[in-house]
């Protein structure tokens, strides 16, 4: 089943999005494989995903394709020549931009605030090792949102990026901002989101905490030893009492 969804009406800037969803159905598994080709007068996005997660996107600033999959999952490779195809898709998108604006000019604008804001790291945290903080914003309309980052209470823009918002099936949008950073003990980061439907920015905080070794095995071994000693003590007590009675 191939569906195309065109969502273009925006308050801050107008974009054109084409969302292609292919439902791959088997006896046991249902997955959503989708692609997005979006553009504006000054920006654009081409992205492929699986089950609401990005598997490949075009980095037009550095003229290359990126595969932002975390290291702990099975890698999903993409074919060569995808970046060149993305460039052609952008040329087509921008040619049609004016026509789309005229077609959608009479659609009333509604404001829906983000329904969810999450902040998490791409990889397992190791102090002193490069990592990526991800700010995941979903459920808002219209697009885009404005995302800002702070480190220890100070605004930071170095190492930040944000994708073009992409539409969901319910007509709302999702947008992802990233911050490249090196975690150091005690550092505190925040991600703040601004949207016309919000009276004040929506903020989430993430703090670098030292990774503690697991204490589970030690606790269980300690409990086992304690129970064992209590059993020995009880057995000795009844043995002595039995000898006294005899």
UniProtKB/TrEMBL annotation:
- Which InterPro entries has this protein been placed in? Ig-like_dom (IPR007110), Ig-like_dom_sf (IPR036179), Ig-like_fold (IPR013783), Ig/MHC_CS (IPR003006), Ig_C1-set (IPR003597), MHC/Immunoglobulin (IPR050160), MHC_I/II-like_Ag-recog (IPR011162), MHC_II_a/b_N (IPR014745)
- PROSITE patterns annotated for this entry? IG_LIKE, IG_MHC
Q: Where are the transmembrane segments?
A: 217-240
Kindly give the membrane topology term recorded for this protein. Single-pass type I membrane protein
| Signal peptide interval | 1-27
Which coarse location class describes where this protein primarily resides?
Answer: membrane
Which SUPFAM superfamilies does the record match to this protein? Immunoglobulin, MHC antigen-recognition domain
For the keyword Transit peptide, the answer is no
Organism per entry: Anabas testudineus (Climbing perch)
State any GO CC term: MHC class II protein complex
For this protein, the record's Pfam families field holds: C1-set, MHC_II_alpha
Every Ig-like domain range: 114-203
Tell me where it resides: Membrane
Task: Give GO terms for biological process.
Answer: adaptive immune response; antigen processing and presentation of peptide or polysaccharide antigen via MHC class II
Q: Know the name of this protein? A: Ig-like domain-containing protein
By its UniProt entry, which Gene3D superfamilies does this protein fall under?
Class II Histocompatibility Antigen, M Beta Chain, Chain B, domain 1 (3.10.320.10), Immunoglobulins (2.60.40.10)
């Amino acid at each position: 089943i191939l569906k195309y969804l065109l969502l273009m009406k925006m308050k801050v800037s107008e974009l054109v999005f084409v969302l292609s969803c292919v439902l791959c159905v088997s006896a046991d598994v249902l997955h959503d494989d989708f692609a997005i080709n979006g553009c504006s007068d000054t920006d654009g996005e081409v992205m492929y995903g699986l089950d609401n997660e990005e598997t490949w996107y075009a980095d037009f600033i550095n003229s290359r394709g990126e595969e932002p999959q975390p290291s702990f999952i099975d890698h999903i490779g993409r074919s060569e020549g995808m970046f060149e195809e993305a460039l052609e898709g952008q040329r087509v998108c921008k040619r049609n931009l004016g026509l789309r604006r005229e077609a959608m000019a009479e659609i009333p604008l509604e404001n829906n605030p983000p329904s969810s804001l999450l902040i998490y790291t791409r990889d397992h945290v190791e102090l002193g090792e490069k990592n990526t903080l991800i700010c995941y914003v979903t459920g808002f309309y219209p697009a885009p949102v404005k995302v800002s980052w702070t480190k220890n209470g100070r605004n930071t823009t170095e190492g930040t990026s944000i994708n073009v918002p992409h539409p969901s099936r319910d007509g709302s949008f999702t947008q992802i901002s990233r911050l490249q950073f090196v975690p150091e003990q005690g550092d505190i980061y925040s991600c703040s989101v601004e949207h016309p439907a919000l009276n004040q920015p929506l903020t989430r905080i993430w703090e670098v905490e030292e990774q503690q070794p697991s204490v589970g095995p030690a606790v269980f071994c300690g409990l086992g030893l304690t129970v064992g000693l209590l059993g020995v003590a009880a057995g000795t007590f009844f043995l002595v009492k039995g000898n006294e009675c005899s």
